[in-house]
């Protein structure tokens, strides 16, 4: 098998955003010999730090293990990072001959190893596996968690792989999912906002919450310049997280204090 230069196109069929990491088409420990299985991982990276802070490690490796470590990265926002088209060091030793490095592709999803999985990331995870199964003619049973094919590994944590495979099978057996609308695509491009983030998009969250009548006067009573000062604060602090949670509760959506792909549309009313 040659280098798998179709992987970015396969990833785009999920409907989730895709980043082609520079040089991916020729990156690998030689070409990928065959694709008989898929192995799902978590990065065990930092709990914060943006969408895919483990990119450099997965691409370049770490002391004692040269990169690339997997063909795909999966960000917290559901963004798919296409990192390598050749063989990667993601599963050795393997208890399954269909899931060793020469026989399988790896997906390293950003997660500290203990934190909850954002819904959109799980959805993208299932869809990416389903599209890869379609591309390489694999049954959903060929999708394995690292913890299933390497007894020393815990990843991907807290994901029931039987449920995961059932979701993959449902997509493989179904029709091609509808393409997202342009507004949905825009929303998917928006960054996730949570505690500690400090950027212009935090101001947008503040403005939207205010426009929705979700900002009581007490929230900005002690802020210099009052409401104006509050709206122009770029830091997502604990007070703002509380208002986000209140808004999510009022809207009947998951209460996690993070503005992501589920909360943004509600906030923007798209
Ligand atoms: Zn792993």
Automatic annotation (TrEMBL):
Protein EC: 3.5.1.28
GO biological process: cell wall organization; peptidoglycan catabolic process; peptidoglycan turnover
Lineage: Bacteria, Bacillati, Actinomycetota, Actinomycetes, Streptosporangiales
Molecular-function annotations in GO: N-acetylmuramoyl-L-alanine amidase activity
Family note: Belongs to the N-acetylmuramoyl-L-alanine amidase 2 family.
PANTHER family (UniProt xref): N-ACETYLMURAMOYL-L-ALANINE AMIDASE AMID
Keyword set, alphabetical order: Cell wall biogenesis/degradation, Hydrolase
Top-tier EC class: hydrolase
Annotated catalysed reactions: Hydrolyzes the link between N-acetylmuramoyl residues and L-amino acid residues in certain cell-wall glycopeptides
Name assigned to this protein: N-acetylmuramoyl-L-alanine amidase
Coiled coil: none
Matching SUPFAM superfamilies: N-acetylmuramoyl-L-alanine amidase-like, PGBD-like
Domain N-acetylmuramoyl-L-alanine amidase: 24-157
């Amino acid at each position: 098998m040659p280098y798998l230069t179709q992987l970015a196109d396969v990833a785009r069929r999920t409907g989730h955003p895709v980043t082609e990491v520079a040089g991916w088409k020729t990156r690998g420990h030689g070409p990928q010999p065959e694709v008989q299985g898929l192995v799902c991982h978590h990065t065990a990276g930092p709990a914060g730090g943006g969408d895919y802070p483990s990119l450099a490690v997965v691409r370049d490796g770490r002391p004692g293990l040269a990169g690339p470590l997997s063909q795909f990265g999966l960000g917290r926002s559901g963004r798919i990072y296409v990192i390598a088209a050749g063989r990667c060091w993601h599963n050795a030793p393997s208890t399954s001959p269909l899931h060793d490095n020469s026989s399988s592709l790896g997906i390293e999803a950003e997660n500290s190893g203990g934190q909850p999985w954002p819904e959109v990331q799980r959805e993208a995870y299932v869809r990416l596996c389903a599209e890869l199964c379609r591309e390489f003619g694999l049954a959903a049973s060929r999708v394995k968690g690292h913890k299933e094919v390497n007894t020393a590994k815990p990843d991907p944590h807290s994901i029931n792989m039987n449920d995961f495979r059932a979701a993959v099978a449902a997509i493989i057996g179904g029709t091609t999912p509808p393409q997202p609308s342009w507004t949905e695509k825009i929303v998917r491009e928006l960054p996730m906002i949570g505690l500690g983030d400090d950027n212009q998009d935090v101001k947008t969250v503040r403005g939207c919450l205010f426009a929705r009548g979700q900002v009581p006067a007490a929230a900005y009573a002690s802020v210099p310049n009052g409401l104006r000062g509050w709206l122009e604060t770029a830091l997502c602090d604990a007070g703002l997280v509380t208002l986000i949670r209140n808004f999510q509760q009022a809207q009947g959506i998951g209460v996690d204090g993070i503005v992501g792909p589920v909360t943004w549309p509600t906030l923007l009313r798209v």
